[in-house]
Amino acid sequence: MSHDQASYLELLARGAAAEAYDRPVLLARASGAGPETLAALEDAKQLALRVRAELEGRRRREAELSALFETAHDLAGLRDLDAVLRAIVQRARSLLGTEVAYLSLNDPAAGDTYMRVTEGSVSARFQQLRLGMGEGLGGLVAQTARPYVTDSYFDDERFEHTRTIDTAVRDEGLVAILGVPLMLGSQVIGVLFAADRRARVFEREQVALLGSFAAHAAVAIDTANLLAETRSALAELERANEIIRDHSGVIERASDVHDRLTEVVLRGGGVHDVAAALSEVLDGAVEFTDADVEAAGADGRAIRRGEEWVAAVSAGGELLGALVLHGHPDLDPVDRRTLERAAMVTSLLLLARRSAHDAEQRVRGELLDDLLDAPDRDPRLLRERAARLRADLDAPHVVLAARIDGAHTDTVERESADRQRLWSAASHVAATCSGLAAARDGGTVLLLPLGPGDTAADLARQTARHLGDSMREPVTVGASSPVAAPARDPAPIAEAYAQARRCLDALRLLGRSGQGAAAQDLGFLGLLLADPGDVDGFVRRTIGEVVEYDRRRGTDLVRTLEAYFASGMSPARTKDDLHVHVNTVAQRLERIGRLLGSQWQTPARSLEIQLALRLHAMSAAVAR
Hints:
By secondary structure, the protein is of the alpha+beta class. Helices cover 58% and strands 15% of the residues. The protein has 20 helices and 15 strands.
């Protein structure tokens, strides 16, 4: 082998360009080599070029195989479909040596095709391109399910040109385009493209290589779809398992509630025991309330009110209260039904308790009726009957008459219902105070014990307030003077009731409906209502402070008052009658004002004071 022939080996070893292989022949010709030498060099050159082409083909196939292997590796560890498709497009562009590569997918729902991944693109219009099915080179590929290539896109008439596609391709500057189908079985789901901004011819090996990348892309899409379907199925299974677990837990809770409520009923528990059992099972705070029950509805259904659930406790269309569940804004239907059943059990307990309470109320009413209508009953039997009701008829009591202020008289049924409600409320007050109550004369009469330090007026005001709160409308209450011991002498009970009714009528005539008072609260009017009247008590309450002051100090304030009223409330004439200085009269009146209060000269108050002065004078004359 000559030196010139060995130089081709050096060119092959360093991978020189094809143009460098002409240099040894040119140098030999320049040095005057003979024809045989030049022919040998030419043969060596052709052999070296064939070897160089074979090596380049091997290197290209090696790169292609490496890229395909890397793509397969990406698919094996598929996590992000977009990342895998982007890698496929990048490798296709690199190995084919094109300026642009892109991938489009069909959208069956929209009935068109859209760009999914682009590499090397510079046009926003091209990157966002959507085109109808069957349009452009991609449409031809999709229709035939075979690769298509064009050396000059705008001069090729084999496929349908549209303004939208041509404008986008022109913006991108593409000329030569190769498209291969993405196949799932026999269905074309998209197209993989390689394109240049100059005219070029794509070799068969390049078409086959792009087809291999398209196959990988189709596999990636199919795998991603399968993974998505698998994840969706797993999520649905998980949701189904959660629903099954939740329903199982709800059924267990419902069974637990049934057992607990049965136990509450059997051991004679109350509504608060039902609420406590329900709170534990539903893992929330349940309370029974009889306030604002109108918002609960009476159809037996639990309803949501803000962050609470409310189940009405009703019987026969009457709302008795409601069970309120706090802390469970999202309540399972089975738990909701559990709350409704608990409300039904609560209504049964309330009805049972009401029946027992009504029976006791009737017994209390019958005893009071006997005290009013048959005062000659045996005191021993009266005490025994009262003891069974926890009432002590040997203690001082007060008789009270009560009526609803402005009772509804539009219908007989409504008026009767109001009386029944008042009797029920009064019976509750009586039972609470160890007293008696009965419906009578269109209203209610109560016989309540008088506690230490209490007055008949205090008891009347308290009873009016309690009945008004219970009825949710004003109730007027008139009280009698205290009755010492009803069991020993029931006779005064009837007269005390008459006195209480007169006091009740007086309150309504005086515009004090909805209040409670005793005869002593009504001044001289109370004296007229009381029969017999408490004269000494009236005088003491009205001018007792002045009388006591005269007694202790030896003053003459009572006589000054008599002279002051006799002179028409004139200080000047009063001083003439008393034969004292006018300043003395002023000082005495100032003292009287401090003893009787600042309102003592008002017409109503002065009238009471003058009546008390007359009664005081009469009692003093009788005493002498």
